[in-house]
């Protein structure tokens, strides 16, 4: 029976496709993997938009992947199910087998398996556009045969496990378990320039409990220290895309000291993060803390819809108008303001007006029990979920505006404006390329330090000249407590801040990139 990944991450798009990489060897005990990227073009944008239409299923993915309502064991949810890699930006080259067969892979800290297309992949068109592993051509191949499949937000790959030597830079990891993919149905894998994925997450989320490549590097004594680090070159005019360093970090890649935070839950490189600020002002939702994941396999910044709507409003991004949001503001807006002024507990307001229930610490959507068929029940429940989530966002928005002593009319108008800026599920939000100078900084508080992103750093440019389009680097992902609210800090953030993954001390570090 196949081994199935346990599903939370994002499905996010915008694909920066990249050229094959060159390995660099040095005598300082560090293993360097050079990264390059190809500029994102109009064809990739069309493919990404097609994927986002497929990805409308994200609206129901919270229920499908156990996000809905009260959560039990933390193992019920993970991020892999929301990945689609249309956004993948930085790629590198590895070799599998003896002699090495070359593959271009994403080095992904948001998953833990290594997989590449198999020569036995006969019925997926995507396989014929990529390098395929041929076990018969390797003298170090060992048969395993256990089946496996990994489900992403817009598709899945399936195949079977094999074992062989894997070459990463100048290192050879012996007897590495990996997946030979025999089915790649998603358009993501058809149009992508990468062949496979090399996961750098923890073993806890590894499909089939396969020991990750990074673990074997450490266990086989191939690296100087149990640390690896990422430097992404965000200068679009330079050919060099960046570098992964296994065994430590390169001082040339960063300025000053790193701010370290402990990993709070193994699986992903997850840590606790503080408030998110727009132009130095709190957004409210992460004031008491949010979880965050440093994810090199995602280009964008994914966070709670309420904050993304505030960011989109501040930068003038155009999203999809949410009629549910406007309906909540129109019907309950004045009541919410009155209850806030009466000093009612904000977390109880949506349950008091009947849109959510209250579990003692937070609102949860009202479960609709019925003997009618499951599909009708699911639709009704989904609408109820949307109203509950929208109400909770509106409470935070209005609470922030009351602190600024705004009038009721201004607060309701502001809430309606934010409704118009709600991003589409898995969708991008466009911004005016000529307006970057007037956009605010967006900042993240990590380890007590504020990390600023300027508009030039969080806006992605597609194309050149008059045909250029600008896309917000922020997209929505809503994960309820206890695992949420959750942020995924992808390459937009990691490009600005050199990132250290300290496996030995179970911590993540950030410093200004050089």
UniProtKB/TrEMBL annotation:
Family matches, as SUPFAM superfamilies: Acid proteases, Saposin
Keywords tagged on the record: Aspartyl protease, Disulfide bond, Glycoprotein, Hydrolase, Protease, Signal, Zymogen
Domain Saposin B-type intervals: 320-360, 384-425
Gene3D superfamilies attached to this UniProt entry: Acid Proteases, Saposin-like
Keyword Hydrolase: yes
Signal peptide start and end residues: 1-24
Domain of life of the source: Eukaryota
KW Protease (keyword) present: yes
Domain spans labelled Peptidase A1: 90-511
Classification via Pfam families: Asp (PF00026), SapB_1 (PF05184), SapB_2 (PF03489)
Alphabetical list of PANTHER family matching this protein: ASPARTIC PROTEINASE (PTHR47966:SF54), BETA-SITE APP-CLEAVING ENZYME, ISOFORM A-RELATED (PTHR47966)
Family, per entry: Belongs to the peptidase A1 family.
Protein name: Peptidase A1 domain-containing protein
Gene source species: Hevea brasiliensis
């Amino acid at each position: 029976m196949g081994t199935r990944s346990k599903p939370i991450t994002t499905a996010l798009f915008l694909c920066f496709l990249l050229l094959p990489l060159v390995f660099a060897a040095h005598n300082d005990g560090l293993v360097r993997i050079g990264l390059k990227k190809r500029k994102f073009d109009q064809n990739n944008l069309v493919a990404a938009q097609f994927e986002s239409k497929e990805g409308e299923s994200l609206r129901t993915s919270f229920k499908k992947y156990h996000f809905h309502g009260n959560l039990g064991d933390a193992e019920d949810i993970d991020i892999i199910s929301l990945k689609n890699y249309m956004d993948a930006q930085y790629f590198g080259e590895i070799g599998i087998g003896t002699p090495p067969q070359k593959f271009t892979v994403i080095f992904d800290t948001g998953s833990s398996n290594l997989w590449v297309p198999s020569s036995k992949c006969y019925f997926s068109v995507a396989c014929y556009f990529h390098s395929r592993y041929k076990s018969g051509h390797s003298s170090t191949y060992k048969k395993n045969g256990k089946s496996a499949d990994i489900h992403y937000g817009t598709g899945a790959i399936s195949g079977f496990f094999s074992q062989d030597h894997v070459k990463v830079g100048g290192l050879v990891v012996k007897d590495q378990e990996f997946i030979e993919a025999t089915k790649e149905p998603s358009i993501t894998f058809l149009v992508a320039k990468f062949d496979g994925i090399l996961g750098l997450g923890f073993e806890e989320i590894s499909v089939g409990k396969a020991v990750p490549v990074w673990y074997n590097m450490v266990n086989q004594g191939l690296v100087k220290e149990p640390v690896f680090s990422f430097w992404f070159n965000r200068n679009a005019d330079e050919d060099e895309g960046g570098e992964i360093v296994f065994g430590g970090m390169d001082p040339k890649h960063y300025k000053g000291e790193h701010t370290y935070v402990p990993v709070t839950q193994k699986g992903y490189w997850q840590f606790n993060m503080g408030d998110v600020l727009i132009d130095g002002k709190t957004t409210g939702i992460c004031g008491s803390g949010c979880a965050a994941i440093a994810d090199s396999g995602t280009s964008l910044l994914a966070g709670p819809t309420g904050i993304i709507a505030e960011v989109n409003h501040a930068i003038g991004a155009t999203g999809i108008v949410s009629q549910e949001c406007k309906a909540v503001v129109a019907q309950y807006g004045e009541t919410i303001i009155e209850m806030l002024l009466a000093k009612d507990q904000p977390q109880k307001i949506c349950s008091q007006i009947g849109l959510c229930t209250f579990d003692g610490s937070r609102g949860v959507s009202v479960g609709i029990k019925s003997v009618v068929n499951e599909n009708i029940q699911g639709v009704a429940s989904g609408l109820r979920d949307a109203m509950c989530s929208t109400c909770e966002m509106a409470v935070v928005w209005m609470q922030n505006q009351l602190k600024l002593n705004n009038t009721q009319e201004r607060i309701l108008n502001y809430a309606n404006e934010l409704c118009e800026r709600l991003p589409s599920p898995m969708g991008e939000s466009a911004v005016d390329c000529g307006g970057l100078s007037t956009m605010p900084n967006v900042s993240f508080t990590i380890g007590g330090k504020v990390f600023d992103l300027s508009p030039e750093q969080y806006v992605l440019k597609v194309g050149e000249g008059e045909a250029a389009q600008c896309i917000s680097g922020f997209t929505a992902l809503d994960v309820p407590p206890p695992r949420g609210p959750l942020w995924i800090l992808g390459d937009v953030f990691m490009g600005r801040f050199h990132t250290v993954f300290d496996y030995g001390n179970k911590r993540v570090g950030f410093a200004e990139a050089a």
